[in-house]
Structures are given as structure tokens and as C-alpha cells.
Amino acid sequence: MFADRVLSGMRPTGSLHLGHYHGVLKNWVQMQHEYECLFFVADWHALTTHYDTPQIIEQSVWDMVVDWLAAGVDPAHATLFIQSRVPEHAELHLLLSMITPLGWLERVPTYKDQQEKLSEKDLSTYGFLGYPLLQSADILIYRATQVPVGEDQVPHIEFTREIARRFNHIYGREPGFEEKAEAAVKKLGGKKAKLYAELRTRYQEQGDDEALESAKSLLDEQQSLSHGDRERLFGYLEGGGKMILSEPQAMLTAASKMPGLDGQKMSKSYNNTITLREDEASVTKKIRTMPTDPARIRRTDAGDPDKCPVWPLHLVYSNEQTKQWVMQGCKSAGIGCIECKQPVIDAVLEEQRPMRERAQLYLDDPVLVRNIIADGCEKARKLASETMRDVREAMGLGYS
Ligand code: TRP
Ligand code: SF4
């Protein structure tokens, strides 16, 4: 199977729009063919900021899953689930909270930023402060290697890596680690044991990162290793103790430059969006009534696309030929604005057509969606419980 595991979550706080499609979902759709992918509805995260409007969350959860499916996220290729249906996330969050210094949480940049930005809400809550740690639990519980996020979330991934390191540092030091690790090396069998030892020496003595990577992929391929031995051998490579939790990488998704209906970035808070499955009449009307270059008052006035909010949409949707037609036609007053907007309208409608069709299937039969999620939750829970077993044991809770 895949050595990399991708995990990402989205908060259900309203309907998704074309900005989400271009910024996030298109990327998910592509990744599902390249990696093992887990995508989840971050309903607990939504409560950290929307605790006083649970109706919004409730409404948005299923709509959001339908939006994902409409966009082409395919349950045959990705595991889709809801955070609150995998309560192990909460257990790991609690256990990690025991070793999380308050200062680390207070220093996460989104903490102060969001409090200022959402000043109409009282976000001086325990849940809001702890939200990056909940995110760490989401990631670490699946031992995800890659986490696709936007720029603003990179500090959360860095925070997660620090938590994993701290956890391994505190709990990875079992008595007799070296002996157990050496015994595990032997279990790899003659040739592979020798290769592992050589690669480990090359990394530890010469800092050879390639050797480290080769050794890691060697371990990835060993299906017969027990979980404990695998953790020991990963930890032994880098010198420390057991690696119970693994450090994820942020996978930076290029910031979505999807323009909204007013030239600003498309965002719900600017009220300038086209929703993912918006009906055709409404899309047409929204684009037809978009503001244009304010200097073009009459049809006979020349305009400048660089001063017009419609132009950025042409940059997303139009080919070279159309863009030239716009440039020339606008600057020479050769075309009217309604005419100019038509190719954008056509392109948006065409982009949405397959999404609307796919969505219809699920709207006609909501049980399909429920089943996809039930299935995904079951798979996710299985993965989560494996990690939790190790974590409980490491923290002295493995009573039997
Ligand atoms: N915090 C993310 C956001 O606000 C959502 C999220 C929650 C997430 N848990 C995650 C993203 C884990 C990636 C991985 O957009
Ligand atoms: Fe904008 Fe097109 Fe009108 Fe020019 S012709 S002002 S680019 S809508």
C-alpha cells in the first residue's frame, strides 16, 4: 500500500463555495489517487468558535459531505468520516493535554489573531485555547505523514511535531530499549538486519539523510514486524527511544486566488461567493450584476480590465483567445460588459454541471451518504484504536 498517509479536515460552518473548490477540494481529488487519504468533518473544531450556534454546524455537516462528493472526492479512494464519531480523538486530546505546556498554546499565532478577528465572539474559552492540540490529536492518532493545509495552518503542524517529539521523549524511554532494539534488528533477518545496521551507522556517524530515508522505507516494507518493534526500530535509527507518535509534514497547498464577485478573494465573510452547487439562474444573475470598471458608465466608454472585478475571473476560466478578446474589446469599447461576462458564466456553469449531477445522486438517496460516512468512521476508528492502544500503554494506562 502507500507509505504516506494524508489527513485533512474541514470545519462545517456554512456551505462551500468555488473558493473551497479551487483552493482545497480540487487538491483533495487529485491526492486521493496518489496517497492513502483520510478526510474528515471537523465538527468539534467548529464548536470551538461556533459553540453558540450549533444549528449551523448540524446543517452544514451533511451538506459539506455532499459538496465533497460532488467535487469528486471518491469514497472508493478516500476515507471520509466525522470527527465526533471517532471519540478516540477526544481521548488523545485529553491525554496529550497532560504534557502540553500552556505557553505553547498561547504562542500559537492563530490564538490571538482569531480572537481579534472574531471579536464579536467570546473566545477566551478553554476549548478555543486547546484547539491546536485537538488538531494535533486528529493528526497524530492516524500517524499521518502529510497534512495538506493553507499557510495559516502551518504553525499548527509545527506545533503538532513538537507535541509528538515531546511525547516520544517522555514516554519512548522504556527500560532496556537498546537490547530490545537490537533484538528487533535480528528479527529483520540476515540481509535486511545488516542493511539496517549499515544505514543506521551511516546516518548516525555521517549525518547521511539519504541513509535515514532508505532505512525508513526498509522498515515500511517489513510487514511481519510487530508494532512495538517497528516503533523501536524507527526510534533506534535516530538515536532516541521508541517513536510512538510520528511527526507529520505540512503539505502546503498554494493559496487559493479564487476571486469573488467583487474582486476581493472569494469568502463568506465578504458575501461575494458562488456556492458549489448554486443553481444556474442564480449564478447567471450574480455574474451579470457584478460591478465592472467604474469608468465604463456607458457602453461607448472604453474600459480597463485591470480595474474590473470580472477580469480576475477570466484569468481563472478563460483561454488565451478569450482573454485577448476581452482586453481588446474592453479597451476599445468594442464589446459590452454583459457580452464580456458570458464566457465566464458559461465556464462556471460548465464546471458546476458534473458537481450538480453527482450531488443529485446523493440528494435523491441520502442513505448513500450516511453509509459512506458510517463506513469511513469504522475504518478511521480502527486506525485510531491502534494508536490509542500504544498511547495508553505508554502512559501507564494499559491495565489488563
Ligand atoms: N483547523 C483546520 C481549519 O480550521 C481544520 C482541521 C482540524 C484540520 N483538524 C485538522 C486540518 C487536521 C488538517 C488536519 O481549517
Ligand atoms: Fe469589465 Fe469586461 Fe466590462 Fe471591461 S468589458 S469593464 S473587463 S466586464
SSE order: EHEHHEHHHHHEHHHHHEHHHHH
What oligomeric state do these chains adopt?
single chain
How far apart the termini lie comes to: 33 Å
Estimated share of beta-strand residues: 5-15%
Structural class: mainly alpha
Number of helices: 18
Task: Describe the overall structure.
The protein is mostly helical and 400 residues long. It has helices at residues 18-31, 43-50, 54-71, 88-97, 102-106, 109-117, 126-129, 131-140, 154-171, 177-187, 190-206, 209-220, 227-238, 280-288, 310-317, 320-331, 337-364, 366-394; strands spanning 5-10, 36-41, 78-82, 146-149, 249-252. The strands form 2 sheets. Strands 1-2-3 form a 3-stranded parallel sheet. A two-stranded parallel sheet has the order 4-5. Strand 1 (5-10), helix 1 and strand 2 (36-41) form a beta-alpha-beta unit. The protein is elongated, with a radius of gyration of 25 Å. The mean pLDDT is 94. The structure holds tryptophan (TRP) and iron/sulfur cluster.
